[in-house]
Amino acid sequence: MINKKLHVNGVDIALVDEGEGDPVLLLHGFPDSHHLWRNQIPALVDAGYRVIAPDLRGFGESSKPQEIEAYSLRTIINDLVALTQALDIQKAHVVGHDWGAAVAWMYAFLMPRRVDHLAVLSVGHPATSISPSLEQREKSWYMLYYQFPGISEQLLRRNGWRLFKQIIGGEGDHARYLRELAKPGALTAGLNWYRANRSPAAELEPQGNFPPVLAPTLGIWSSGDKALTEEGMAESGRHVKGPWRYERIEDASHWIPLDAPEKVNELILGFLGTQEPAGATRRRRRL
């Protein structure tokens, strides 16, 4: 589906750019690519939106720097600013999942004038993870396992990717992930997202106050998420100054866009273009 590649912020970013109308920026996480959004892209285009779905740096057909520092969230934000500028986009709806949600939150509160509506799947506002609960720490055990350059890569690949398969648990595009991560530099690039942003040492660093998110925001969490607790998303509204809406999806794994595509499409399409606060009567656009 990739139909464009741009050189921005020192890397090549491959992307899907389809449709016309108000732009919607779709941001994937680990270990995905734009392919995560294959069920949302046609629905958004058909609804009259321009969809931009990049392979974020380190994934898919985009550049894969091997340095840990190349994956700080601020660097990723700079990628998005440069990318949208290159596409002549001043303001966009932003939708993110997993690491893409973390990027989307940060993009929204650092670049408020560039975000129309914000929809975040699975991952809550970063302020909710400053002091994670023991339950969340238990769910996030794999993040600690990813912190050892060279060693993590060897252990994940060992015995036919046995450990990685156990971590993924047959969810998401599990077979595709193995093919993608086997490409040169791909596994290290993906793990470097965790090393740059979720190392244990990061908890010891002074935590500043996060600016509030001004955009209308939709948070979506799934009951079958093995990696993240509901608390992180449900409490994110405390950090949103604009209208906040929370939706829980039952019987879906962490990979909500793949497991519940029709519901995700309904929620996103019903949310974009509205200013409706969470407590108001919801009138969704007919699909």
TrEMBL record:
Question: Which Gene Ontology terms cover its molecular function?
Answer: acyltransferase activity; hydrolase activity
Q: Which residues form the AB hydrolase-1 domain?
A: 23-261
Q: Which Pfam families match?
A: Abhydrolase_1 (PF00561)
Which segments cross the bilayer? none
Domain of life of the organism in this record?
Bacteria
Q: Which UniProt keywords apply?
A: Acyltransferase, Hydrolase, Transferase
Which protein is depicted?
Hydrolase or acyltransferase of alpha/beta superfamily
Q: Where does this protein come from, organism-wise?
A: Actinoalloteichus hymeniacidonis
